[in-house]
UniProtKB/TrEMBL annotation:
Protein name: Transducin beta-like protein 2
Key words of the record: Membrane, Transmembrane, Transmembrane helix, WD repeat
PROSITE patterns: WD_REPEATS_2, WD_REPEATS_REGION
Protein source organism: Holothuria leucospilota
Gene Ontology CC terms: endoplasmic reticulum
Chain residue ranges for the region called Disordered: 45-66
Coiled coil: none
Transmembrane segments: 14-35
Amino acid sequence: MDGDVATKSPKEQLASVIIITLAMGAVVGLLMLMFGYGTGFLGKKPDDSEEEEEENKDSKAKSNQLSKKQLKALAVKEAKQQAHKKVAFNHPLLLTSLKEHSQNVLDFDFSMNGKYLASCSEDRTVRLWSIKDFTEKQHKTMRGNVEYDHATQVKFSPDCKAYIVSLAVGNSIRVYKIGKKEDGSMGISPAVDFEKKTDHDIIGIGIGSTSHGNYIMSAYNNTIIHIWDTKGDLLETIDTHQMNHNHAAVSPCGRFVASCGFTPDVKVMEVVFDKSGNFKEVKRAMDLKGHKASVYSFCFNLDSTRVATVSKDGTWKLWDTNVEYHKNQDPYLLYTGSHNFTIHSLIALSCDGHTVAIACGLSVSVYNTQNGEEEERFNDVHTAEITKIGFDPSGRYLVTAGDKHLRVFHNVVGYRANITDMEKKLKTATSQPMRDRLEMQITQARTKLEEILGEKSPEQ
């Protein structure tokens, strides 16, 4: 047999090897079919049950992992909320907190008659509060709904019979009237919607009323200001050339529109009507120059004779704007103070010009304008960034907005400043009736201040 193999030719030997290889391949293929391997090659779809099971396991594991992260985040959020509930903000000078809004409060405004405060929120409502109720435990409100939108800013009309808002989505102005309904009850109803003129966001609104005419102002985050009549017709478009606007407002006297932005000044313009009540023009009145960097914010006092400004340069300034600007007389710089806030700040000036409040982040500092000193500081006033601060027309209260609440503080710095101012006037008083009146006012202010500092802050 060995001899037979040895005598085969090379071609015959190669053929034998091929036959043996094919036979072995056939045997292996048969075994694969028997155990379920290689079915794909035969045109039959493979059994994906095991692969799908593995994918489901991986997907379930990822889902469980994500759920754990979500649960952890939710737990942290709830813990913070519980912490805020347990350690609610409190301060000896806090009179009360207004808590009817269900989402963040974005702005508020006081009526000129000193009776009401209007606040707007992301919850699509505007609420009217009675200032005389601030000392009460219960705070009644009148609710106005903002349909299909929410208000970013709110301003009372000078006659307190209406208010305007800037709309977040609509990016326009809407007028609401306050009055009696058909059933005799007081209510709020929308009156006029202004036409949208630009895609730039509104950063300031206001209503001006003079002896000759009325107007509404809207300012945008570029350099444009629009002046409208009260029916919604555009009267004038102004370009302030300030790179961008940080803040804009109408003065309480109604004569001026002012703006600040990237440049280190505040531009004050006069809105002019003729004797027949027809709009005439908007012209330059004065510029508040002196800061070395961008002006964040400004505020007029009640009679528009003082303006307070706060800047990125770390200073705040108090100006005398009771000047003959028609004769190109510049406003007087009365005082320059310093602040340690490093980001965008808000400023408020009391009605008499004796007190300045500056808010940044969650904190508020209150300054006496007679000496420039910081006499009060409130930290962590809200759980979200402060969006607005302001003094009521009487100067008794300082109000802040942030998160869902408004905080109402006693303005003790204002009481102290008023006492100091009246004591100075008493020394120079020339008539006995004037001396008697000042002495009585000083006594009343001291009594009220002692009462505030001596009473316990109501539990919030």
